[in-house]
Design goal:
This protein is an alpha+beta fold. Helices cover 22% and strands 20% of the residues. It has three helices and five strands, in the order βαββαβαβ. It has a five-stranded antiparallel β-sheet with strand order 2-3-1-4-5. The relative contact order is 0.26. This is Aromatic ring-cleaving dioxygenase. It comes from Bradyrhizobium sediminis. GO terms for molecular function: dioxygenase activity. Keywords: Dioxygenase, Oxidoreductase.
Length: 141
């Protein structure tokens, strides 16, 4: 991973193109809780809800679904997730030009942190803009 401890200046928030939240669950034990949280998110926030992954995918060592969202949504969505995640773990990370650093060095965890396979993530990649939302919020956060 890139060593940023010797950078001569602070990094700019302009490095962040968007955010992802990965909501982890057990397909047999906590999927109903994840389904409820997913529905609540869709009712309250303008985000892109990704597919269900009941098996390990990419660097993720547990079943999960992704929530992609614009930087403007962060101040409302992330605190709401902190209060409503129940027993689920959630990884929230920025999307910059360094996916490995985004997932391993710069994330925040809501609930217990889980293992990730960093070797499956590149150190360089395109900055991922937030996709068009696929939710239609009708409730306030």
């Amino acid at each position: 991973m890139t060593d940023v401890s010797h950078d001569p200046a602070p990094r700019s928030l302009r490095e962040i193109a968007s955010f992802h939240a990965h909501v982890y669950y057990d397909p047999y034990a906590t999927r109903p809780e994840a389904e409820r949280l997913r529905a609540w998110i869709g009712e309250r926030f303008s985000v892109t809800l990704g597919r269900w992954h009941d098996v390990k995918v990419g660097p993720h060592d547990q079943a999960m679904f992704q929530v992609a969202f614009a930087t403007e949504i962060f101040p409302e969505l992330v605190p709401w997730l902190m209060l409503n995640h129940g027993s689920l773990s959630i990884l929230v990370h920025p999307n910059t030009a360094n996916p490995r650093r985004d997932h391993l060095g710069d994330p925040l965890w809501i609930g217990p942190a889980l293992d990730l396979h960093g070797e499956k993530l590149p150190e360089e990649g395109p900055m991922e803009q937030a996709p068009a939302p696929n939710t239609h919020p009708v409730l306030r956060p």
